[in-house]
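Posting for a labmate who doesn't have an account.
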Amino acid sequence: MLKDDFENYYYDQNYNCAETLIRAANDYYDLQLHDRDMIMLGAYGAGMQTGNTCGAILAAVSVLSMKYVEKKAHESEDIKPVTTMLIREFNKKYGSILCKDIKPQSFQPEIRCKHTIMAACDVLEDVIKAYEEKKAGEGK
């Protein structure tokens, strides 16, 4: 499971939520991202440093892009529906995708945003699985 791979990055290497999720997903899904590629997501942490959209969600959406976009997002039949599923599921869990709304529900000083990252890992995995099953059922 994806969430089994994140603690090394989050606690041992002290990456933020977005950096942690992309690095764990890079390992888990073999995205073949290089270190410099993943650094690009650093500013996504803490809701883009402003409490806006949760960095873990932004990293999850980035994973979807790596999996479902070949060259251009607007040429992908998959990116919009799979991203919509991800956002919908995360909203079901927290009632928001904003860090400023999620943090009061799950942040604990001793474990930081562990629960949010775990939830993002679960939602991402579940959405990819459900989307792939749906596509297979449609014969795509």
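Reply:
Got it, the structure tokens are right above this. The longest helix spans residues 114-138.
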